[in-house]
Fold:
Amino acid sequence: MTKLCVVTLIISILAPQLVNATEDDYQLKSAQHKSLLVAVGCFWCGEQAFEQYAPGVVEAVSGYAGTDGIENPTYRNHPGHFEVVLVEYDPTKTSYQVLIDYAWKNSDPFNGNGQFCDYGPSYKPAIFYDNDEEREIAERYVQETVLPNYPTWKEKDLQIPLLPRPTFWTAETYHQNYYIKNPGDYGYYKNACGRPQRLKDVWGKDVYDCYHNLESSCFENVTNASGDVVEAELNTKGAEEPEAALLPRKYWITIGAIGTALVVIMVSFLVVKKRGEDNKSKQSMELKQLN
Structure:
């Protein structure tokens, strides 16, 4: 056997294991847990969608991933990376297939250039697989769930690629749990970006409500990775659904600064005016005394 044949044989054996050859920089909370990597546009919204509404999710982490991406990416510098969410889940309480369903229902499958109001390479949608089993599950989902339920859709128009899973890099701390730490700003951005409305337009309002409402009774039970039907456990962090602020906090700060500046200008104007009037009065009195 030639050296080339030996190398080819080794690669063919190891290839499925080398999809994610570099370790993610996020450690799962338990060796029994698994993780899913998806790109659904803005990672703030993806994080909330999975942590609050998807069953069996332990943690959703905002980050960056891309086969051609640089190492140690940051929000200001991540060429070659998608904005992604790493979804850590308990396979006894959910499954890869269940969570793939949530990924699709939180994406606009007809926009391959971004998602909602966000455009560009960072915001393109994608679903990643770590092995052949996950790839087959994701492929079957499109053929057996998406297309049969939406018969007017054509497969060639669907713009969510299925890609080998690259290395995951955790995003900066201020991006994590953004919907919990800044609910007003987050809610404003989510609505202003048109995410809820577009998802309703694509999937239907009833479907949207099923996948984005803690009071929904659509999924009281789910099938876990072993094929057992279990009670659905949602909202692992017990967070309240964020309510949108009238304006983001940064706008109120700007408005406050402008208001303060206007008050200072007005007070300064009145002080100068008063001094001018006092000087005129003083000069008038002096003229009267001279006369």
